[in-house]
Write a structure and sequence with these properties.
By secondary structure, the protein is α+β, with helices and mostly antiparallel strands. It has 7 domains: 24-221, Jelly Rolls (Sandwich), CATH 2.60.120.200; 228-326, Immunoglobulins (Immunoglobulin-like, Sandwich), CATH 2.60.40.10; 387-504 and 609-655, no CATH class; 524-605, Elongation Factor Tu (Ef-tu), domain 3; 827-973, no CATH class; 993-1122, no CATH class; 1162-1231, Immunoglobulin-like. The strands form 15 sheets. Strands 1, 3, 9, 10, 11, 14, 15 and 17 form an 8-stranded antiparallel β-sheet that branches. Strands 28, 37, 38, 47, 48, 49, 50 and 51 form an 8-stranded antiparallel β-sheet that branches. It has an 8-stranded antiparallel β-sheet with strand order 39-46-42-43-44-41-40-45, with no helix packed on it. Strand 56 (883-888) and strand 57 form a beta hairpin. Helix 7 (776-792) runs antiparallel to helix 8 (796-816), helix 11 packs antiparallel against helix 12 and helix 11 (982-995) packs parallel to helix 13 (1064-1077). The two termini are 58 Å apart. Residues 1-21 have low confidence and may be disordered.
Length: 1234
């Protein structure tokens, strides 16, 4: 925020003497301390401003605690003091304002602030620390250019804000970001330094003493003066973190120099280092050095403690959790398990990625998501806590009809005649039935339990509220009150009952289904304050002392009431409206004879049940279902939602149960966190960093997501897309993360039966499907499940099954590959809704019935005159719209555009067609339209059409229908017709790479043949040089030909939604697509033999996404890198963690570009033994990667193998008895590398 504030100082001829008082702060309100003589500094010189401020209260927005015109600095409070923002008036545009928020959460209202400007790199950096030296924020903006602003002076205070400033100074030099915080005693290279220790004098020696204007100086004691702060880091840690992974097997340097004391005399401290935990005991060069060396690290997490002591005897300790990982000289990870290299490809070690922003956000994603798991109580999630006892039920979707009514019944009937009672469970009464699949009815008596019977409805038992959806209960969506209604003879009668054994559905101490009381609706109680009064035959309920709110609409209310002068009954209904805090409306009127006294009540949020079931492979899984109500401690009405491949319904006996109040890990959808394999991303980071928190995050997500009641081990209904990445992540964790099989929760550890539903149910037979049943991403996920299972399933018999299926899939891939080496298909046409049109060859008329304006997007038409290679056009009848379709020589050219005055304008691209005057149609939507008879109607789906709505029976196409006359389906979507979305090719390439590692030579050969073809296509066609990202669609008629963005045009899209235009934010969107496509960078690199051009292309594509120039070293960076989709707010939720670091595998290209992991350098080492200790021995060698090998030895010399690429290995000699028991062992020692 910039401001102009004239500062007029009355300079005094004499200066008042001050006594020096250490550790004080200047208190300012309307008065301010200033000096207007501080000269304006050169724009080409670096500077940094440091200050400490405390007790600022709640300042008004845009109030200034201080400013420094000499360096162009503005400083303002925002959001009531929760945010502080600093900026430089020297900068032209860009993102030079830097803001740190969240200050209201500080335990003490005190911050140290450093803001510095680097004119050579055109960057700035704002950092803030709390009173204990914890960095609470860092922002590193850039600016495109400097202006000529020049002014003198600096001031502190004066905006009427009560605050205290401990010191303020301007330095003429910079320090590295993430150095120690500003300290009281630092006076080096200062232009001005006001310590405010009872004086306004300048301690820099330059004589720029401050004077007060608007009042006299007032001082308070500065808090935190007797503070020593230990600040351990790894040596040369990046600016955005305190550590980078140690190189296991090699000496590593630690760094305590950022530690400090806030004492006035000196910031210096002494040091002592110690190890708290870790997989090995490290060796230290000198524990008392500021920067000691440690050796002996292997893969894993070490906790190291630094204790510092200052001159006053104040001490402080701080722990550093740091990962260690084996790597080669290029920083490429050496994994202990070769399967990790196959699943994840080459991995760059954390801290070694030249694109540091990618490393930063990978770690942030782990920390943010792990914090989310903790905040939401997901380790374990509530559903994993099981209720007491077991349940039996029939696993089916909806309420299966088992009998019918034998006579008509009225809406108020209390007797229900049925044809057959034996199919209903009437052993416990009251119970519940469903009429017509819609009306839930409570039954209190029956005339028989077999054969024909008449059921008696319980008091107020008709039309009970129902919680369901259209899939399971036709005509019902959400929590509703199904009004009791008349039903005809022959209407279906069904039941969906869950019966417990040893259960307490109402009072279970862990997971009560119906805690409000029995009988009554299921779900957690959200409100029960006050009391309610009922009105006879009224749907309005009046409260006293209640706090009803609109949020309660669609909740249930349960009331312990009476009727007929005192007869007890329980009423529950669905809340349909909330008038105010004391009046609600329910779904149907209350009984005629209800008593009108005050009653207690509960508001209940409808919820789900989690019920175990036996899957087709015999494993125990679970699924969520719609909870209705509990009749008793052992009987509940639960409507099933899922079916499995068991077929029809299946009886489930003695199953575990729980409550499922929310979709804890996000819905299995395109909006869920695990959409792209969040657990895959966590595991990747663990393997390339040794960071145990990443392993924990991977375990939590993979274990509970795949075993959760939304997924059911892959055996539940749903589309492959929304489960693809998560399932692959669970498989990878099962293979590479032993933690998923340790400390098993009540629902069990993750094991192969928990993931076989994916290749078995979803993918097992799709090799015989046509080419258009799924797009490249969906089919790529399904094939990926097969490829991983075929390679690594613990059961050889299952691997044979998966390999047979995978072989069929690869045959399908060969058949479906197009001549251009894309896998263009029309799956998108098959998945979209449409309208039938009658078309005549050569005519633009489309006839039919029931058309409406939303079927077409045409809003204007006419002619335009265009010139090849120019974006400018002139025309008639132009209006603004989403895109223009110009038909030239029979070909449509599609572009976003701007127009002026209805007569001229500019396309988003340089016109690629012939010059001339041609017909156009302007549409209101960016979507495409295609017309065909089926997904196999390639000849027609290869052409897109625009259409204009005329009437309910008439549409007009933008060009004559080229197909044969007949009835077709006209459909519209983002992209439509026959084509290929390039980013989806990335998922296909992932599975092909996995298949290439098959031990079946035929499978491996087929996959290896297809990989370079797909990689070449992405390089040549899928990549968009305009955005340096990916096209969203190619091959679709309206996506061709490739075009060039017109200079100066900044539309969101270029050719509709085929690609992105010149808008910087949408360019970033194109670059984000590179993440999903990133496997193509590797494929093209291999195809090109690692040529410089392949490296340059990969670097440009990757750097355009991740190339924050402030964090990139020796590689391509770009001011327009994608800092939107990769922002912390996105990584903390939604799909983005998996998108970039799971299936996106951001770790891969930086390792591929240097040739992948170096080959092993194995060497034989002889170890001398003393066999007098035991008759035989073994030498245990632990490689830096963590791989452990035991070498049995029976002679005085034992030969072992070490890999010098990894560095020093640990070894230990174990002497064994003749029976093989360890009788003695040496201390672990290191074998140095050569």
């Amino acid at each position: 925020m910039n401001r102009s504030r004239a500062v007029f100082l009355a300079l005094f001829a004499t200066q008042v003497a001050h006594f020096a008082y250490a550790g004080q702060s200047l208190v300012t309100t309307t008065a301010y301390a200033a000096n207007n003589s501080i000269p304006a500094q050169s724009h080409t010189s670096p500077w940094r401003v440091e200050f400490a401020i405390h007790n600022w209260g709640s300042p008004p927005t845009n109030s200034h605690p201080l400013d420094a015109a000499a360096v162009g600095l503005n400083c303002v409070w925002l959001n009531g003091g929760d945010s502080i923002e600093l900026s430089s008036r020297w900068d032209n545009g860009g993102g030079s304002s830097a803001r740190i928020s969240g200050l209201s959460a500080l335990p003490v209202q005190f911050i140290y602030v450093r803001y510095q400007r680097d004119p050579s790199m055109m960057t700035e950096a704002l950092e803030a620390w709390d009173i204990n030296g914890n960095r609470v924020g860092v922002v590193q903006p850039t600016f495109p250019s400097a202006n000529s602003y020049s002014s003198a002076g600096a001031l502190v205070g004066g905006d009427g804000v009560g605050q205290s400033v401990a010191f303020f100074r301007i330095h003429t030099t910079m320090v590295p970001v993430n150095s120690r915080p500003p300290v009281t005693a630092d006076n080096s290279n200062t232009l001005v330094h006001w310590t405010f220790d009872g004086t306004l004098a300048d301690s820099s020696g330059n004589g720029y003493n401050a004077t007060m204007t608007g009042g006299s100086a007032s001082y308070v004691t500065t808090p935190g003066q007797n503070l020593a702060v230990a600040f351990p880091k790894t040596y040369n840690a990046p600016s955005w973190t305190n550590w980078a992974s140690l190189r296991a097997g090699y000496p590593n340097q630690l760094d305590g120099t950022a530690s400090y004391s806030e004492a006035d005399a000196t910031p210096g401290v002494t040091y002592y280092w110690s190890q708290i935990s870790g997989p090995t005991i490290l060796r230290w060069s000198d524990r008392t050095q500021a920067q000691p060396l440690v050796t002996g690290a292997i893969f894993g997490t070490y906790v190291l403690r630094l204790t510092v002591t200052d001159a006053g005897g104040n001490t402080s300790s701080s722990d550093l959790s740091v990962g260690a990982v084996a790597m080669d000289n290029n920083g490429v990870v050496v994994n202990a398990d070769p399967r990790a290299d196959q699943i994840f490809g080459p991995m760059i070690a954390f801290g070694k990625n030249p694109w540091g922003y990618a490393d930063q956000q990978a770690k942030n994603s782990v920390d943010l998501r792990l914090a989310a798991y903790s905040a939401q109580g997901l380790n374990p999630p509530p559903w994993a806590t099981l209720g007491a006892g077991t349940v039996s039920y029939t696993f089916t979707s909806g309420v299966p009809a088992c009998t019918t009514l034998t006579a008509n019944i009225t809406a108020s009937a209390t007797s229900i005649p049925i044809a057959q009672a034996s199919c209903l469970n009437l052993s416990q009464l009251p119970t519940t039935i469903m009429l017509g699949g819609q009306e839930l009815v409570r039954i209190s008596a029956t005339t028989a339990t077999t054969g024909p019977a008449t059921l008696t409805v319980a008091y107020n038992g008709r039309g009970l509220p129902t919680f369901c959806n259209n899939s399971a209960c036709p005509g019902i969506a959400g929590p509703v009150q199904q009004i009791q209604q008349a039903w005809n003879s022959g209407t279906s009668v069904g039941q969906s009952l869950t019966v417990g054994s040893g259960t307490s559905f109402g009072t279970d101490p862990n997971v009560p289904l119906c805690p409000a009381g029995l009988p009554g609706p299921a779900g957690p109680i959200v409100n029960s304050t006050g009391s309610v009064t009922l009105a006879r035959s009224s749907a309005t309920i009046t409260g006293s002392g209640t706090s009803f709110s609109p949020a309660m609409v669609n909740d249930f209310i349960r009331i312990s009431a009476t009727h007929a002068g005192g007869t007890v009954f329980v009423y529950w209904g669905a809340i349909t409206a909330v008038a105010d805090a004391t009046h609600i409306t329910v779904g149907q009127p209350l009984p005629l004879d209800v008593d009108t006294t005050a009653f207690s009540y509960s508001i209940i949020q409808p919820t789900y049940a989690s019920l175990d079931f036996i899957a087709p492979d015999g494993s125990t899984q679970r699924a969520w279902h719609y909870l209705q109500y509990c009749e008793s401690q052992t009987q509940a009405a639960i409507i099933g939602y899922y079916e499995t491949r068991i077929g029809g319904s299946a009886a489930q006996t003695a199953m575990h149960w729980s409550r499922y109040d929310q979709q804890y890990f996000g819905a299995a959808s395109a909006y869920g966190p695990n959409f792209y394999g969040e657990d895959l991303g966590h595991l990747a980071f663990y393997l390339r960093s040794g960071y145990s928190s990443a392993q924990t995050a991977a375990t939590v997500m993979s274990r509970y997501w795949v075993k959760g009641p939304e997924i059911g081990g892959g055996w539940l209904q749903g589309i492959p897309l929304v489960k693809g990445g998560g399932a692959l992540g669970a498989m990878a964790n099962l293979i590479l993360n032993p933690q998923v099989k340790q400390s098993c929760p009540a629902v069990g550890c993750l094991d192969w039966p928990d993931v076989r539903g994916f290749p078995g149910y979803f993918a097992g037979d799709f090799g015989s499907y046509n080419c258009d049943f799924a797009d490249s991403r969906d089919s790529g996920y399904m094939a990926g499940w097969l490829a991983i299972a075929a390679n690594y399933d613990s059961s050889n018999s299952q691997r044979t099954i998966w390999k047979n299926s995978l072989r069929d899939v690869l045959n399908r891939e060969n058949n479906c590959k197009r001549a251009d080496n894309s896998w263009s298909n029309s799956a998108i046409f098959g998945n979209a809704g449409g309208v039938n049109v009658t078309l005549t060859n050569g005519s633009t008329a489309a006839m039919g019935a029931g058309f409406y304006s939303g079927n077409c997007y045409g809003i204007a038409s006419g002619t335009v005159t265009v010139t090849t290679g120019s974006s400018a056009f002139t025309g008639t009848g132009l209006v603004s719209g989403a895109k223009m379709i110009v038909t030239a020589s029979g070909k449509d050219y599609v572009s976003a555009f701007v127009q002026t005055g209805g007569a001229s304008g500019n396309f988003s691209f340089l016109w690629p067609g012939p010059s001339g005057t041609f017909q156009y149609v302007i549409e209101s939507s960016t979507w495409q339209t295609a017309i065909g008879s089926s997904t196999s109607d390639y000849s027609n789906l290869s052409t897109n059409y625009a259409c204009t709505y005329n009437s309910p029976t008439s549409l007009t196409l933008n060009k004559p229908w080229a197909g044969t006359s007949g009835v077709y389906s006209l459909r519209s979507y983002t992209l439509m017709g026959l084509g290929q979305q390039p980013y989806m090719m990335g998922i296909k390439l992932r599975y092909l790479k996995w298949a290439s590692y098959s031990d079946d030579a035929g499978i491996a050969a087929q996959a290896r043949t297809l990989i370079p073809l797909a990689g070449q296509w992405v390089h040549d066609v899928g990549y968009d040089p305009n955005t340096q990202g990916m096209n969203y669609g190619r091959v679709f008629d309206w996506c061709e030909p490739a075009t060039t963005t017109a200079p100066g045009q900044q539309q969101s899209y270029r050719q509709g939604e085929c690609n992105y235009g010149g808008d910087p934010n949408f360019i970033k969107g194109a670059r984000a697509l590179t993440a999903e496509t990133s496997s193509a960078l590797w494929a093209y690199y291999d195809l090109s033999g690692g040529s410089p051009s392949a490296v340059a292309w990969g670097d440009t594509a990757y750097g355009s996404l991740w190339g924050d120039c402030t964090k990139t070293t020796g590689a391509y960076c770009d001011a327009m890198f994608d800092n939107l989709d990769t922002a912390n707010s996105n990584l903390a939720a939604y799909k983005w963690t998996g998108f970039f670091f799971g299936m996106g595998m951001a770790h891969q290209w930086p390792a591929v570009r240097v040739g992948g992991v170096a080959a092993p350098r194995n060497r034989t080492v002889s170890i001398g033994l003393n066999l007098s200790v035991g008759p035989k021995a073994q030498v245990i060698v632990t490689a830096p990667s963590g791989a452990v090998t035991a070498y049995p030895c029976a002679t005085a010399t034992c030969n072992v193998t070490v890999d010098d690429r990894q560095g020093a290995h640990w070894y230990q000699v174990q002497y064994l008895s003749s029976a093989g028991a360890v009788v003695a062992q040496t201390d672990p020692d290191l074998l140095a590398a050569q």
